[in-house]
Design a protein that fits this description.
With 151 residues, the chain is an alpha+beta fold. It is built from 5 helices and 6 strands; from the N terminus they run H-H-E-E-H-E-E-E-E-H-H. It has helices at residues 25-28, 37-51, 69-72, 121-137, 142-145; strands spanning 61-62, 67-68, 87-88, 93-94, 96-100, 106-110. The strands form 3 sheets. Strands 1-2 form a two-stranded antiparallel ribbon. A two-stranded antiparallel ribbon has the order 3-4. Strands 5-6 form a two-stranded antiparallel ribbon. Strand 1 and strand 2 (67-68) form a beta hairpin.
């Protein structure tokens, strides 16, 4: 049996407001030490959205490093050989990421080994997540980028 459901899109996420149900106690102060309250709110919103089906590969934030994903995507922890995220299957080596945070920002993925652009589904996800992260950091459209499903 094969289940076929379309993956949730970024349009199904939103920032949590106080008018929404209070987050569970375990989540209330999870990001309390983060000075950038907008980043903290988006981290919390994406945590909830992930519980509702958002793929971890499309997050704009990283709950491990507690930052915008484009700021930590170069960490070896974000190389996933099995799925091909930040990995070149042609030459079996890590894909490098170059990020320019200057508004509007840019992200480039490249392989120093074979020189071939890493154009795979997984690496396109990395690229889109970093681009969305840059956009969110620069103030993106919070009301349309982050809408939590009503399930």
């Amino acid at each position: 049996m094969v289940l076929r459901t379309s993956p949730p899109s970024r349009a199904h996420l939103r920032l949590l407001a106080e008018a929404d149900a209070a987050p569970p106690a375990r989540r209330r102060d999870l990001y309390g030490e983060i000075e950038d309250r907008r980043l903290a709110a988006i981290l919390a919103a994406e945590d909830v959205a992930e519980e509702h089906g958002l793929s971890a590969h499309v997050r704009t934030t990283c709950y491990v490093h507690r930052c915008w994903v484009h700021r930590c995507v170069s960490d070896p922890l974000h190389v996933l050989v099995v799925t091909g995220h930040r990995w070149c299957r042609r030459c079996d080596r890590t894909i490098d990421v170059e990020v320019d945070e200057t508004f509007p920002g840019s992200v480039e993925l490249f392989c120093d080994g074979c020189g071939v652009p890493p154009d795979t589904v997984a690496n396109r996800e990395v690229l889109r997540a970093c681009q969305a992260s840059l956009s969110a950091m620069h103030g993106g459209e919070a009301s349309t980028l982050y809408v939590v499903p009503d399930r």
